[in-house]
Amino acid sequence: MTTSFTPLTVAIGDLVPHSANVRSNSPETYDLENIAHLKASIAVLGLLQPLLVQMLDGKYAVLAGGRRHAALKELIADKASKGFTAKTKVDCRLVPEECDVTTALSLAENITQAPMNAIDEFEAFARMMEVDGQTPETIAKTFGTTVAAVKGRLRYGLIHPDIRAAARAKVITLDTMKAFAEHPSQEAQREVFEALTKDGGYLQAYTVRQALKSRGVQVSDDIGAFVREDYEARGGAVAADLLEEHSVLEDAALVETILLEKLGAAAEEARIKLRFAWADAMVRYDYATMADYGRVYPGPVEPDETAQKRIDEITAELEKLQLEMEDEGLEDGAYNALYERVDALEEEARDLQEAYSAEDLARSGVIASWSGGQVTLHVGLVRPEDTVKKEGARGSSASPTGEEAPDAGEITYPASLAEDLKTERAMALGAAMALHPEATLDLTLFKLVSDVLASGMSVTQAIKIDARKEYRSHAKMDEIDETSLEQVAAAHEALDLSWLDDARAPADQFAAFRALEAGEKAKLVAYATASTTQSCFTRDRQRDSLMHAFEIEIMPDIRAHWTPNAALFNRFKKAWLLKILGEDLGLAQEAVTLASSSKKEIVAFCDKLFAEPFATLTDAQRAAVAAWCPPMMQTAGAACDEAEPTAEAPQPDSEVAQAA
């Protein structure tokens, strides 16, 4: 049986909901956010599909089209929408009053309409731009959506037809098809598509994106934006997208060339400014490659009269800025500007009070790399070939430990190992400080007071008293000896943290802190200061007499906080291990016996020896094992920038030398 519905127009104000509408029990369907797109479309294009209505109690009840009805009512209520009032008439179709299948009619309209294919939608948006001449802004207004959402659909609608056809046929997934939008050139898309599907393999979105990356750099990418002006000036090809931010600089090699040139210029500028010996550039800073590089750091210097005058000026300006920043009525923008000025002044003051030594400048340099969307400078780097003295060149570059160029059996410390040993020593020092709270409290308070009240020269660079925990970087953190870690953990367990309650206001926390016993405060300050120890070998008495004396007081023997283990010995050469056993520990016979063993066996022997000295050791050997560590790690050892004292090399006819 076929039922015909009479067309008619009805004033919006005469329309009411119908109880048989299948959506009538889902009021959330008509929430403003759910009909916003429909409202925008009707406002621009009008009502494209008539409402299905039936006369109930003298009113036109909307049997099908409840969301359109809700959108029409919202347009009437919206004063900004012109042309829609209660008297505005819309197209409807009238269902006879005697019809007994009203629910079926409502359901049929809602479920028999197949949802629009996503690809059809993408292509329709693209046609609106290419054929109808609309912009993303006008399209967004028509459909009540965001410009960003429209741009996303446009990108997918402009993908190569063959790729869209493959998605329609379900040869590739919709997500995989979308990945091709990473490059605006349909030719590039087609070439990548054919290359990836020629062997009949399963195509993935990730694979597509990776392949397209080799076809160029988007202008919206941080590197693309950085090099674009120079790239276009050199005639580099640009694959233009209808949406500018998706255009691509197609010549990836030219992009990298320009980037390296700009990085090199930045590195050279820094080299000249800081007076380093060399400058270099790399696109990405390769930490694995750079592991063998050393690094030098500026040390404290006494400012001359001109520098001191500038420091005094900076100090005065900082005090003025601090007062300005305390103004509670200060706007965020003004406060941030003052904050940046303070940072710049403090950095300038540090530069006036620190400097690289002439020797370090003569062998070190700077590398510029691209990181986080900007040029990053890595300063004070020492190339591997410059970390060891050149034969016959007295006074030239030294190794990280300051040793003479070694012979084949001499123990040397590669830069990567030296840096890790510095970290381990800093951890041991931190443990010692945490275990000596009174002395550490005195040190902390002395540094805070003297840094502020003295002439401006920091009393030591060995600790950072700036309320910031020092990050520990180590190549094999999970394999190191845990003695210092356990000692620090025990010190933490002993802290009274009752005052540190996030639920309290800072003022209340401070009041609780002040109420602590003096001894508890000392433990807290000592623990916090211990967390700031800097990676370094033994302190130079001349450069930092304060920390040199302090370390001797609280850590006369690093072995109370650190024990050599397999992780360390694995990084030594076999000849070094035999030398340590035979000469440093007095175990010459054991060294001779182990000379024919594998390095793995020697490492295991050393690990066991240091973990629990053998009962067969003499008193002298036991004492040597209990005290041994790399010379530059011991508190009373030689200074960092001086040659390490080493035992005389064994004569060729000695048992140890022959065995090695």
TrEMBL record:
Segments forming domain ParB-like N-terminal: 8-111
UniProt-listed SUPFAM superfamilies: KorB DNA-binding domain-like, ParB/Sulfiredoxin
Coiled coil: 304-362
One of the record's GO cellular component terms: chromosome
Signal peptide positions (record): none
Record GO biological process: chromosome segregation
SMART domains from the UniProt entry: ParB
InterPro entries: Chromosome_partition/occlusion, HTH_ParB/Spo0J, ParB/Sulfiredoxin_sf, ParB_N
Keyword Glycoprotein applies: no
Disordered: region residues: 386-410, 640-660
Keywords: Coiled coil
Protein name listed in UniProt: ParB/RepB/Spo0J family partition protein
Organism lineage string: Bacteria, Pseudomonadati, Pseudomonadota, Alphaproteobacteria, Rhodobacterales
